[in-house]
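Run: sequence + fe (ii) ion -> complex structure.
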Amino acid sequence: MNSSVLSTPDSMGRIDQPTSVRQVRVSDLKGVFTDEPAWQRMVADGDPLVYEVYLVEPATPSGWDMSYGTTILHPGRVGDECFLTRGHLHEPNDRPELAYVMSGEGVMLLAEVSPGGTSAATTENVRLSPGLVAYAEGRYAHRVVNTGSTDLIFFSVWPSDTGHDYDTVGRRGFWSRVTG
Ligand SMILES: [Fe+2]
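>> structure
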């Protein structure tokens, strides 16, 4: 990554030369949604794609470099719960993330988490719409929910030496939920 023009996401948010692409299906989100029977039915009935992430990360992470990516979060529901990203904490917890909404409608769930994730001091739901820039301070767990009927597409950037803790959210669930 040494060019001043790194990539050009297309209108669907797909970066042309990602270093990796993640595709997350309903089956990958076991235990994430509260309605387990509805989750099982969706897995059996085609196991749709929930979201895709196009990532650009440097080969050697450092606090002086940035990683970035676009997330395409598809519309849908499991039971009455909107499709969402898995959600995570950053490690160390002073590494922030900045997100720019390209299209769609949704909510970013934020939870200021105590060490170990045993309680949340503060939760905040930020409404997402095209053109909005959302900033998640490092100590906030974050998850994005698509509340609309079209893809929710956002570009985000974070220090490249950021680690991602998915286990805390996976173990105890997120601190707030969105139904629709
Ligand atoms: Fe993050």
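>> summary
The domain at 20-172 is CATH 2.60.120.10 (Jelly Rolls). Residues 135 and 141 are 12 Å apart (CA to CA).
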